[in-house]
């Protein structure tokens, strides 16, 4: 497993969210993304690791690849940190089983669905363009749309958290983009998925000498920024969910970019002097 990624050291690891971080859906020509791809290929690809960490399932990630010129990640993390693919290519690659087994502990998926079903403000996400088996309800991620906004949404989320705890379901709720609500096992998140990956890399004796930088724009990215020792790049178009966290945890390790999406990532690589000569 993962022989290519773990078998030798990398200088640096870049971990990026996709929608509205690597990919600017408003940039029809993908100018900033193409420029980032070129920078990565010329200055990083030979000695560094590219990790995509997305809220999307593998099926929806494959859809995105058809729409925009994404580079090839060395490791792909899907479904808000819950599915890690060391071999990202192919139509149905297998998610890492050790990570799935860790997430299984104390997770009662059926009970979580039953409890969330009692909240009239929540409607389950489904992707109409894909077969049912490929939609966004995953083994360790249940996803809903929240039909109310602002404080009302916060109220719903906190009542759901209480109901889950009272029923003994150890779950984590993640609110993103002011509309998506993910219910995950308590020990899951993009951050926890990254910690699992970094543990594998360190155990193989391959800690990256120039460290790790994470990039994001919304609520499901917050825990990436909280991984001990990483640098962070928040793109200028970030949502309040991430902005508020970055403001409350301001440090020289967190860079608030002045550019949107991939433009902000390139800017951060320059800011932290990570571009090899
Ligand atoms: C992606 C996923 C969706 C999830 C959202 C926020 O859009 O497709 O299921 O709720 O990310 O994490
Ligand atoms: Mg995003």
Automatic annotation (TrEMBL):
<dbReference type="InterPro" id="IPR006379">
    <property type="entry name" value="HAD-SF_hydro_IIB"/>
</dbReference>
<comment type="pathway">
    <text>Glycan biosynthesis; sucrose biosynthesis; sucrose from D-fructose 6-phosphate and UDP-alpha-D-glucose: step 2/2.</text>
</comment>
<dbReference type="InterPro" id="IPR012847">
    <property type="entry name" value="Sucrose_phosphatase_pln/cyn"/>
</dbReference>
<dbReference type="InterPro" id="IPR051518">
    <property type="entry name" value="Sucrose_Phosphatase"/>
</dbReference>
<keyword id="KW-0460">Magnesium</keyword>
<dbReference type="Pfam" id="PF05116">
    <property type="entry name" value="S6PP"/>
</dbReference>
<dbReference type="InterPro" id="IPR006380">
    <property type="entry name" value="SPP-like_dom"/>
</dbReference>
<dbReference type="InterPro" id="IPR036412">
    <property type="entry name" value="HAD-like_sf"/>
</dbReference>
<comment type="subunit">
    <text>Homodimer.</text>
</comment>
<dbReference type="GO" id="GO:0005986">
    <property type="term" value="P:sucrose biosynthetic process"/>
</dbReference>
<keyword id="KW-0378">Hydrolase</keyword>
<dbReference type="GO" id="GO:0050307">
    <property type="term" value="F:sucrose-phosphate phosphatase activity"/>
</dbReference>
<comment type="similarity">
    <text>Belongs to the sucrose phosphatase family.</text>
</comment>
<dbReference type="GO" id="GO:0000287">
    <property type="term" value="F:magnesium ion binding"/>
</dbReference>
<comment type="function">
    <text>Catalyzes the final step of sucrose synthesis.</text>
</comment>
<feature type="domain" description="Sucrose phosphatase-like">
    <location>
        <begin position="11"/>
        <end position="273"/>
    </location>
</feature>
<dbReference type="InterPro" id="IPR023214">
    <property type="entry name" value="HAD_sf"/>
</dbReference>
<protein>
    <recommendedName>
        <fullName>Sucrose-phosphatase</fullName>
        <ecNumber>3.1.3.24</ecNumber>
    </recommendedName>
</protein>
